[in-house]
Amino acid sequence: MSILDLRRFPRAHKDAEDLLDVLVTLYWKEPPTSSLVERAGLRRADFSWNAPMSDVWPEILRRAAAQGKLRALVEAVDHDPESAAQEIIKALLAERADSGRESFGLSLIGKKAPQAVFDRDELRGHLRELSSGDARVLVLTGDSGCGKSYSLEFVIYALGRMGVSTGHVDFRKWAGSLATPAGIMRDLAHQLDWTLRTTVVGETEDTQARMLLSWFLENVRESPEDVWVCFDGPHADRLTPPALRMVKDIAVAAERRTEVTELRVVLADFEDTLPDVDRTVLRERIKPIGVPQLEAFFRAVAAEAGEEPDQDAIAVLIGELLGNGPLPTPLPLRELSLSAADIALAAFPLDV
C-alpha cells in the first residue's frame, strides 16, 4: 500500500520525509498552499496560516491522511505547474501495493534520493517473524558504524510499503536535556496521531513513566491495526532512568503478550537487558559491510531488472563505487548506499 492511502501520515517513513521536504520548499506561503488544500477537499479554516509553513504542512498532511484525502492532495500538487520537476510526487502516485515478502526483499529504498540496501537477509527474516506474529521484539546490536540505524531505516521503509505506520524515536538526535517519559510519549503520540495524556502538575518522573505506560498500552489495545515502535540508541546517557525503564517496559509488555497482542518493538543500538524476557526476544548483531555484500547488492538489482552480469561487469561497478584508494573501516554506509543506488540505476533499467 502506498503511504498516500494510509489513514495516518507516517512521519518516520523516508518517502514521507522527502514529500514533506518538497512541499515545504515549494509552497512556503499561504497562497497557493490554501488553494491546494481546498482542491483536495480539506477546509482552509482548519489550519493556522499565520504559523511557519514548516509547522503548517505537517498538520495538512496529518489531516489529509486522517480524512482519506492524502492522495487527492498529492494529485492536486501534481497538477500544479510548480511541482512539475518533482519526481517523488509522480513516483508516489504511481506506487503499487506491496506484499510483505516483496517489501522485505527490497534492494533500494526511497524515491527522491534512493539508497541501497546491503546484506540484510537475516533482518528480512526477523521482520517476517515479527509481521506474522510469531515474534514481538527485535533487538539490533553491533559495533559503532556497522549499520544499526541504517537497518532501522530499512525496517521503517519496508513497513510503510505494507501500509504499516511506525512510531520512531531517535535518541541519537535528542537535543538538550535527557529524554523524559513525557518527551518520549509526546513524540510517539504525534507520530501515531494519538491525543497525549495530560501530565499532572508536580507529577514525579517515576509516576509519569508508570501512568504514560498504561496510557500507551491502552491506546495500543484500542488501535484498529498493529502498532510498531522503533527506538534508536536508548542509552543511559541519553534518557533519564524513569524514561529508560519505560522504554524497556514497552518492549517487555510486547514480548509477554499478556497486556497487548498488537504491539511490535524494534530496539536499535540497545545493549541493556529486558527483565524476564531477555532470552526470548529476537536478537541480531549487525555485521560490517564488505566487498562481497556490495557485489551481492549489484547482482540483486540486476536480477530485478532481468539481467545476469558476469564477474567482470560486477567488478567494474565495484570499482566505480569504491575508487582506487584504501578503504576505511568500517565503510561509510550512508555515502556508499547513495552512490551504489545511483550506479545501479544507471547500469540497470529498474523503476523505483
Automatic annotation (TrEMBL):
Residues spanning the signal sequence: none
Annotated SUPFAM superfamilies: P-loop containing nucleoside triphosphate hydrolases (SSF52540)
Residue span(s) of domain Effector-associated: 14-80
GO molecular function: ATP hydrolysis activity
Annotated ORC1/DEAH AAA+ ATPase domain residues: 134-258
Superkingdom, taxonomy of origin: Bacteria
InterPro entries reported in the protein's UniProt record: AAA_22, EAD1, P-loop_NTPase
Protein name in the entry: Uncharacterized protein
Organism: Streptomyces vietnamensis
